[in-house]
């Protein structure tokens, strides 16, 4: 019985190869660049047409008033549901529809969706229009092959994941779309490779540190106080104390790549002194002692760490510099924070996808945790829904790179895994 179900789904998915290719190409050809958030309405209308045709009930939701939402760049999202018979769970596939800037170095047209040697190229091909197309093919095939399923299948395509997800999943979660009463299983088809299940991600803390000085003429720096030198002392302290400390903190989470199994800190930016002049300014700089210097830090922390402790490490480092350095004044400002999250390996969505991977690929899945965050954070924190993973086709390292691509065979394999997962979760004995 199970074998027959599985083979019917596998055959039906294989028959949709051309459809999967053209759907992926169509999605890549809508250049949903973020920032600023272009063509969001267009991609939602395209998906509305497609999914309504397949018998889904579709709602377009604008994240009115959310961060970055404006009349010029409205934050549009789409949620499509196909109800089966009563008495089953809801399985939800969530993809973001926005893509990052193109950058330089492309050989292919970034919005051409060209197919070469079994790969589809374009911005967003792997991150994550390929995953979106894969989940649509899986869901359509499943509901078409087994219309008597129990529960419901949902597909959402949401805005702004690349810029924090506030006009996308966070908004939908606030509106109750990810309430565990209405949705029980969530799969986010981010490009984590077709044989890996991503259980969660590390935590994030972004902050700004500013050192203060006093402006004076650059020929008499002793009359002022140089904020850049004060920042230099902060950076030396980081090198001597903070980076070595972070390297000693190791996690039990299966984070990939290996280097991200420890706590990390990046200095995203540094600015001090005279502002950079416009390109059309052809003169020399003026001699001034900088009275302000600012850095932005990006601290990624582990599930074993507490965010209060993470912040205290930085504060005590700054206080130490202050104790040793005459005239040292600073401000520390929080910008953004996300708690780490990790779904249990025995959660129902994890075990169902694991069984499906074993059946389709004839091997056990790898369990991984992402070094960075994605929309699972909002589903977890705002939606309070824990039964959530990322699983989808594509190679994560290609995301945001020139000549980004997704493999057609990988998408087909992932579509089979998704369809078999739906069968395990929603085909109940009647
Ligand atoms: Zn992504």
TrEMBL record:
Pathway: Amino-acid biosynthesis; L-lysine biosynthesis via DAP pathway; LL-2,6-diaminopimelate from (S)-tetrahydrodipicolinate (succinylase route): step 3/3. Its EC number is 3.5.1.18. Its cofactor is Co(2+); Zn(2+). The keyword Nucleus does not apply. Residues 200-323 form the Peptidase M20 dimerisation domain. It is an enzyme of class 3 (hydrolase). It catalyses: N-succinyl-(2S,6S)-2,6-diaminopimelate + H2O = (2S,6S)-2,6-diaminopimelate + succinate. Keywords: Cobalt, Hydrolase, Metal-binding, Zinc. InterPro entries: ArgE/DapE (IPR010182), ArgE/DapE_CS (IPR001261), Bact_exopeptidase_dim_dom (IPR036264), Peptidase_M20 (IPR002933), Peptidase_M20_dimer (IPR011650), Peptidase_M20A (IPR050072). GO terms for molecular function: metal ion binding; succinyl-diaminopimelate desuccinylase activity. Belongs to the peptidase M20A family. NCBIfam families: DapE-ArgE (TIGR01910), PRK13013.1 (NF009558). This is Probable succinyl-diaminopimelate desuccinylase.
